[in-house]
Amino acid sequence: MSNYLPELESLEFITSGQNIVLAGNPGTGKAHVAIGLGMNACLAGYNVFFTSVPHLLTQIRECRSQRTLRQLQLNFEKFDLVICDELGYISCDKEGAELQFNHLSLRSGRKATIITTNLSFDRWDEIFLGPILTAAMVDRLTHRAFLINMNGNYYRMMQTKEWLKNKEKNR
After folding, report:
1. pLDDT of 88-123, one tens digit each?
2. DSSP sequence for 88-137
3. Cβ of 61: how many Cβ atoms within 10 Å?
């Protein structure tokens, strides 16, 4: 991660429409890094949208049922940077997988997207429910993208252990 940090902090990935995929176990700082980059982008004047993938899927389905999906898509395409947190944390049906694919594909190769996921690419068929849709989604999200492995220490667990240790000392 640290090798890419200066380059990512420059926000050049936004102007060049490149994606970032932060993959790793829960609690390793993926969302923290994504939010930090998003905040830097906001401070630099970029238009940024943050959402969890489950929330985005709910929003897509609601807009589709209200016949306002095209407006949501147009708005989604306008953001300089979209951060989609928690891809793969919650499984979805075939329709949900197709809706996610269609929506995320709107930005492919043109606008920057940051994806956080706890699943390696070889497990993305669990999200997109089939090899063809999975291959297409991986292809679109990873083309000229920064692929960053965030496996390592569980920060939340380390913080909890430290908190408990301090609590024990103060008894």
Report:
1. 888 788 899 999 999 999 999 899 999 999 999 999
2. TSS---HHHHHHHHHHHHTTTTTSEEEEEESS-GGGTHHHHSSHHHHHHH
3. 15
Q: What is the pLDDT of residues 45-81, one digit of tens each?
A: 999 999 999 999 999 999 999 999 999 999 999 999 9
Amino acid at 80: D
**Which amino acid makes up residue 66?**
Q
Distance CA 126, CA 36 (A): 29
Sequence length of the chain is: 171
Q: Looking at residue 56, which CATH number applies to its domain?
A: 3.40.50.300
Range of the domain at 133: 5-169
Rounded-to-integer distance, Cα 78 and Cα 170, Å: 52
Domain count, the chain: 1
Specify whether the CB–CB gap between 146 and 8 falls below 8 A.
yes
CA dihedral 123, 127, 130, 136 (to 10 degrees): -90
Contacts of 64 (CB under 8 A, 6+ apart): 99
